[in-house]
Amino acid sequence: MPMEAKDIEALIRDGFPDARITITDLAGDGNHWAAEVIDASFAGLNRVQQQRAVFAALKGAMDGPNAPLHALALTTKAPA
């Protein structure tokens, strides 16, 4: 069962309560999402470290072939 944008945002928000989060359905099918996460905690981290932190916040929602979140294009950055 696909995840809804609000569910993806809620998982990310749990890990990054003060972040600016934008979730976009890329294909209109509820299976292919993009997320932009802008958070001060990313300052000083490289892109891989930032994205690993966001994937950790997803708490396994992308793990395995039967996971509810199929695809997520992720953009992360610290605020300017």
Automatic annotation (TrEMBL):
Q: Which Pfam families match?
A: BolA
- Assigned protein family: Belongs to the BolA/IbaG family.
Q: What is the lineage of its organism?
A: Bacteria, Pseudomonadati, Pseudomonadota, Alphaproteobacteria, Rhodobacterales
Q: Name one GO molecular function term.
A: ATP binding
* Entries under InterPro entries matching the protein: BolA, BolA-like_sf
Output this protein's name.
ATP-binding protein
Checking Gene3D superfamilies in the record gives:
BolA-like
UniProt keyword terms in alphabetical order: ATP-binding, Nucleotide-binding
**Top-level division of the source organism's lineage:** Bacteria
